[in-house]
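Quick illustration for those who missed Monday's session on complexes.
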Amino acid sequence: MAIHINSCTTTSFLVLLASFFLIVRATPAPNHVGPDVDLLEFPLNLEYLEAEFFLFGSLGHGLDVVDPDLAQGGPPPIGAKLAELDHFVNDVILQFALQEVGHLRAIKNIVRGFPRPLLNLSSAAFAKVMDSAFGKPLHPPFDPYANEINYLLASYVIPYVGLTGYVGANPELLRPASKKLVAGLLGVESGQDAVIRALLYERRELVVQPYGVTVAEFTNRISILRNKLGNRGWKDEGLVVPILQGAEGKVPGNILAGDRYSLAYPRTPHEILRIVYGGGDEHVPGGFFPNGADGRIAKSYLYA
Ligand SMILES: *[C@@H]1O[C@H](CO)[C@@H](O)[C@H](O)[C@H]1NC(C)=O
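Prediction with 2-acetamido-2-deoxy-beta-D-glucopyranose bound:
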């Protein structure tokens, strides 16, 4: 009897297995994320930005040395360079850099993607972000590569935007393979954001020289700027907030950003473009992307 049931089960299992392979075989390889392709390609823009900023910051060179194939012939970034970092921060940033290289590979394993876009990672590009955040030019201009604290503040500008993008993309995705990829990317991006925020939170009362402004105030200004540029409400919070904005409305410390339920905020691609282009308009490239971002979504705004 037992044997009979077993062979029955085995037969249905084999039928199931066969139909599974038929379905899989009927679907050409890249199509398992078919309708999600644009949403999976879009974050390559940010992953290129992060990879180059962290590679140059920790090693003094970028993808063209580490893995030229991944750049796919895209132009080298403008103005990126080795940052003056102590051993600890350098060690952390190098790990982030290599994680971003992995992310580029992971995305390109699933979608065709595009070559590295032109990136402006010059001190001047970061200085402009900080000037906008403070509503006036800082003297001397902010230099992300000058020391640990400046580099960490500059890093505060980047993975968080990617994180909100992955949170925003998730409910739009249709295929399990896409959701699996985005969940994996989100996990590590939010880990990077958490490390950067934790390192800054430890130094939140430190006065950033020569500006006479605390680390906490820098993060608040940057977050307010991103809320303004994204122009879709409150999705960004500094390290110290009014108590009502802290977790459960009970604490001013804000080591991680989150909504009233401490859930991560979502952003759409056009909100992200408004921020990384620096001018609050997804149709007008600039900021870190002088020629605009690549992929169908970004291009649809550029040529609209
Ligand atoms: C890079 O950004 C700085 C600051 O906005 C700007 O002055 C410079 O012209 C930019 N470089 C390119 C090639 O866009």
